[in-house]
Amino acid sequence: MRRLAWLVARVWIAASIAPLAHAASAAAHSPVLIEAYGDSTTLGITCSDGHCGPQANNAVTYLQDQLQARHGERVQVTNYGVGGTTATQLRDGMGGRRTGPTTGLPWQERLAASPAQIVLINYGINEVMRNQTPEQFYTAETTLVKTARALGKQPVLQTANPMPDNRLNARLAAMVAMTRRVAAEQQVPLVDQFAYVSGLPDWKTLMSDGAHPKPALYRLKAQQDFQVVEPLVQRLLDGTP
Description:
- The protein is an alpha/beta fold.
- The protein has one domain (31-238): 3-Layer(aba) Sandwich (Rossmann fold).
- It has ten helices and seven strands.
- Strand 6 (154-158), helix 8 and strand 7 form a beta-alpha-beta unit.
- Helix 3 crosses helix 10 (215-238) and helix 7 runs parallel beside helix 8.
């Protein structure tokens, strides 16, 4: 009887472990999909000789390159940056360029249809240019984060890079404070690009105009993103919560 009970116990344990092992194996082989939402600094605008346009050498591309160098092509980062837009527009489904079937939908619907596990959110500059209040920005970003988490996504907030104009930059600092506040209140990861770039020597020489970095600064920003995003990717690949 004791041997029979021992055999039954072994069978039960093996049956219990098998699904967990299968789930861990599946997680290790499943792709990690990341979506980057933001304004023209997410899209990757750079200006030269009075002409501005999106560049292949942008922070999102550099981030994907770094993640794939570590984890291979199973990590994909999609750029949904749209020039001139705000967090409020993303929330409400306004101001987006047509890049897919869910573009133009309110955030709740758009994200519900998204396969991404991680979403990056980068706004603040156009809020300044459109005279929004920090409180309006705070409300919009809070909604973006709460909605993402409710849908099982991992939101990552990014503060905007600074602006060379001192007057505009002072107003941007108030928006940045709201992003930091949302990250702290909602307990989500934060990439503080504003603090990082502001601390670089002669950072203004790395800007192509009053808002957009040169490719070299986009690369530096991507390195900061990588420090925050890569551990999240690793956990997903490991199948750990």
